[in-house]
Amino acid sequence: MSHVQCMIGPSILNSDLSNLHSESQNLLDSGADYLHLDVMDGTFVPNLTFGHPVVKCLRNKIPKAFFETHMMVQNPQQWIEPMADANVDQYTFHVEPVDNVPQVIRQIKEAGMKVGLAIKPKTPVDVIAEYIESADLVLIMTVEPGFGGQKFMQDMMPKVKWLRENYPTLNIEVDGGVGPNTIDECAKAGANWIVSGTAVINCPDRKQAISTLKSSVQKYLS
Ligand SMILES: O=C(CO)[C@H](O)[C@H](O)COP(=O)(O)O
Ligand SMILES: [Fe+2]
Asked: What's the EC number here (predicted)?
């Protein structure tokens, strides 16, 4: 499995959002490979975070890092252009509310961003199978989307395993309850993009937390 790269992307959802820039910079300085930005619209999920105006301001302060927006929104098509304008690198959206997934994929690519396909815990992985070849990444949610700090759902690992067996070069991301205690299961199943929120944010030594996640994934990659 050495043809995929290990990437650790902390979620800033549970950080001190009044200090979004310094929190994000601190995570990058602690070894984060990318930033996972959780965008919620209060409709697709019962919570509200921030949108493209905030992402754009953050991008002005942090011009170089890889930004992934995790779009937990009812109408992902609506935010493609504004997020591209905010210089987002990867637009990861949930397929559940979308009628025409290929069209959304095409529009994201035309806007110059990479494409991530996300599924909620109750969505079977075969729902996205026909779109995988045209995506850059698949995100397997390991909690119900909406809130940080929830318990990792181990029973999502068969989805990750299935993807890894069938798509050896695919970037597979896990998100929700992932931290030093749950990383081994994710890594063993074949995940190589790792989102970790509270486990990194609340750790007094964020560098150590990120490096633990990385070594686990690397152990299974080699
Ligand atoms: O998408 C998310 C929630 O919907 C977050 O990215 C995720 O929950 C990260 O936080 P934690 O690691 O604390 O679960
Ligand atoms: Fe997320």
From this structure: 5.1.3.1
Q: What is the domain range of residue 83? A: 7-221
**What pLDDT, in 10s, does the model give residues 118-170?**
999 999 999 999 999 999 999 999 999 999 999 999 999 999 999 999 999 99
Q: Considering 41, 89, 136, 175, which one is annotated as catalytic?
A: 175
**Is residue 148 included in any domain, yes or no?**
yes
- Using the mean position of ligand 2's atoms as its centre, give its distance from the Cα of residue 73 in Å: 12
Judge whether 42 and 17 are in contact, CB under 8 Å: no
Q: What is the CATH number of the domain that holds 87?
A: 3.20.20.70
Q: Say what the ipTM of the complex is.
A: 0.98
- Active-site residue flag, 38: yes
Q: Give Cβ neighbours of residue 204 (< 8 Å, ≥ 6 apart).
A: none
Give the residue whose CA is nearest to atom 8 of ligand 1: 148
